[in-house]
Automatic annotation (TrEMBL):
<protein>
    <submittedName>
        <fullName>ABC-2 type transport system ATP-binding protein</fullName>
    </submittedName>
</protein>
<keyword id="KW-0547">Nucleotide-binding</keyword>
<dbReference type="InterPro" id="IPR027417">
    <property type="entry name" value="P-loop_NTPase"/>
</dbReference>
<keyword id="KW-0067">ATP-binding</keyword>
<dbReference type="Pfam" id="PF00005">
    <property type="entry name" value="ABC_tran"/>
</dbReference>
<dbReference type="GO" id="GO:0005524">
    <property type="term" value="F:ATP binding"/>
</dbReference>
<dbReference type="GO" id="GO:0016887">
    <property type="term" value="F:ATP hydrolysis activity"/>
</dbReference>
<dbReference type="InterPro" id="IPR003439">
    <property type="entry name" value="ABC_transporter-like_ATP-bd"/>
</dbReference>
<dbReference type="InterPro" id="IPR003593">
    <property type="entry name" value="AAA+_ATPase"/>
</dbReference>
<dbReference type="InterPro" id="IPR017871">
    <property type="entry name" value="ABC_transporter-like_CS"/>
</dbReference>
<feature type="domain" description="ABC transporter">
    <location>
        <begin position="6"/>
        <end position="229"/>
    </location>
</feature>
Length: 239
């Protein structure tokens, strides 16, 4: 049995006639925070969709917690927060979370826990439709945390948040990983890379690097992770 929460081999995906993922392969170790970083349009969302079983794939293998991606047994073991918050505008934050907790058969006590986790206590009784963009995406993140899933797949959860909230969320991700949860978190902001235990650097449908931040610094001779990423891109272009 593998110790990986996610195992991807030879994954190829086409969207709109374009090859969006090209022979992608990597593993995500259990109980870690792995960052999926790369520029807009490089294929991060497509890869996450393949992991949660929401993407038609052309070829390859995606195994999640020992089962094929999308297996019904994974439904309450994997939490997914998309970039477009999937929450109901005409419910309050608490009503919305109570609704999803009942659908997911998560304990009712989870509602207050996840509201505190994403720091929305002050907006608990506010209509979702009246939240700011950043608050709405945190409400969506709270839904993904219900039921304490073993794997969390979070698509750009910190977009639009101020530095303090971003820092709080990264601390939360670290605490969840320490407690045994596996997190795959996408971002196109390279300064978030240093908060991850492992990094998958992606560009144009290819994984350019699969390493720890330290390993990447040593390999490229660049301390700054953005510079390390640029170094990898240029070395590949020159090859
Ligand atoms: N519904 C779609 N139909 C056709 N092509 C699509 C569709 N969605 C995305 N694509 C294409 O797939 C490629 C990868 O998109 P994807 O959303 O996976 O990138 P991303 O790295 O998540 O970008 P971003 O950081 O901007 O969210 C892009 O070239 C995009 O144009």
């Amino acid at each position: 049995m593998t110790n990986s929460a996610v195992l991807v081999r030879g994954l190829r995906v086409r969207r709109g006639g374009l090859e969006v993922l090209r022979e992608v392969g990597f593993e995500v170790p259990r109980g870690s925070v792995t960052g999926l970083l790369g520029p807009s349009g490089c294929g991060k969302t497509t890869l996450m969709r393949a992991i949660v079983g929401a993407q038609i794939v052309e070829a390859g293998e995606v195994t999640v917690l020992g089962l094929p991606a999308g297996d019904p047994k994974l439904r309450d073991r994997v939490g997914y927060a998309t970039q477009n918050p999937a929450v109901y505008a005409d419910l309050t934050v608490a009503e919305c979370l109570r609704y999803f907790a009942s659908v997911l058969k998560a304990p009712a006590s989870d509602v207050d826990r996840v509201i505190a986790d994403v720091d929305l206590g002050g907006q608990k009784n506010q209509l979702v439709g009246k939240l700011s963009g950043g608050q709405r995406s945190r409400a969506s993140l709270a839904v993904a945390l219900l039921g304490e899933p073993e794997l969390l797949v979070l698509d750009e959860p910190t977009v639009g948040l101020d530095p303090v909230l971003r820092d709080d969320l990264w601390s939360l991700f670290g605490r969840l990983a320490l407690a045994g949860t596996t997190l795959l978190v996408s971002s196109h902001v390279m300064d978030e890379a240093a908060r991850c235990e492992r990094l998958l650097l992606m560009r144009e449908g290819i994984i350019l690097a699969d390493d720890t931040p330290e390993g990447l610094r040593v390999d490229t001779g660049k301390h700054d992770l953005e510079q390390a990423f640029l170094h990898l891109v240029r070395s590949r272009e020159a090859a």
